[in-house]
Amino acid sequence: MLFPFFLIIIVVLLLVWRLIVYPGLTPVKYSKCPEGSSRVTVVAGDTCWRIAEAHGCGLDALRKVNANLVCERLLPGDRICVPSVVNGGIS
After folding, report:
1. Which letter does DSSP use for residue 45 in this model?
2. 11-20 per-position pLDDT tens digit
3. How far are the Cα atoms of 4, 50, 66, 68 from residue 43, in angstroms, in the given order?
């Protein structure tokens, strides 16, 4: 008789836990990249360091272009902006 009540309580507690522990599981998508940068889609295994290294820019430059980027929460499908590199320097 009390089983449905406890089941509802458990489901509510799990939803609250998910919202507290993983509040930002929505993909990061910047609507517009700043001038001089391009959009990149994150794939499985990508990290901020790997993306910056693959595009020849530094990690600091990557974070500067993506102000609200949390590198620990990158998920496949996220789209972030990567600064362009011109003549060995960041544009």
Report:
1. T
2. 999 988 877 7
3. 41, 11, 17, 19
Query: Tokens standing for 66?
Result: 């993506």
Cα–Cα distance between 30 and 33 in angstroms, integer? 7
Q: Each residue of 24-79: pLDDT tens digit?
A: 655 556 668 888 889 999 999 999 999 999 999 989 999 999 888 888 888 888 88
3-class SS of residue 22: coil
Closest Cα to residue 78, out of 45, 37, 35?
Answer: 45
Say if residues 63 and 48 touch (Cβ distance below 8 Å): yes
Helix (H) or strand (E) holding 63: helix 59-65
Whole-model pTM: value is 0.61
